[in-house]
Amino acid sequence: MNANGTGMETPSMPVRLSLLWVFIMFNMVFADILSFMYPGFLSEVMGGRADGVVITPGFLLVAAVLAEIPIAMIVLSRVLRQPANRWANIIAGVITIVYVAGGSSTYPHGIFFSALEVGCALLIIGYAWRWREPAASPAALVGASAEA
């Protein structure tokens, strides 16, 4: 049992950050799915435009790279060591906020999903900003000096 008596342990910071990135990705995907259901949007996309933006191979490549950031962070949040993990989450969070704020749908559902995505990215940035390496315990320091 843990300190708060619930029997559940608080997830580690890498797990917590990874789960928040999963949350962002699900919201991005469903925002896009619902946008395709909006009357006239799909025919506009098939005509080579989306909300007035011309869809080109270069545009799609930039969109793919920006969309890959949250996808990669799901895994990177779990495998990077603390210092790199911390900074990767801060930087990816900022880029994701800019991407979401600048490229999201202005339909009501798009604004709703964007608010959730930005809020979650701010939470990721806040967690990562306050995340510090745990101090080495005296037992670990004694064991390290005995091995030297």
List the helices and strands and how they pair.
Elements: H1 13-37, H2 41-46, E1 49-50, E2 53-54, H3 57-79, H4 82-103, H5 108-130, H6 138-147
Antiparallel strand pairs: 1-2
Number of strands: 2
- Terminal CA distance: 37 Å
What is the average of the pLDDT values? 87
| Total discrete domains | 1
Provide the gyration radius in Å. 20 Å
Neighbour order of strands in the largest sheet: 1-2
Amount of beta strand: under 5%
Order of helices and strands: HHEEHHHH
What's the short story on this structure?
The protein has 148 residues and is mostly helical.
Task: Provide an overview of this structure.
The structure is a single chain. This protein has 148 residues and is mainly alpha-helical. The chain has one domain (28-131). Helices cover 74% and strands 3% of the residues. It is built from 6 helices and 2 strands. It has helices spanning 13-37, 41-46, 57-79, 82-103, 108-130, 138-147; strands at residues 49-50, 53-54. A two-stranded antiparallel ribbon has the order 1-2. A hairpin with a 2-residue loop joins strand 1 and strand 2 (53-54). The protein starts with 12 loop residues before the first helix and ends with a helix. The relative contact order is 0.14.
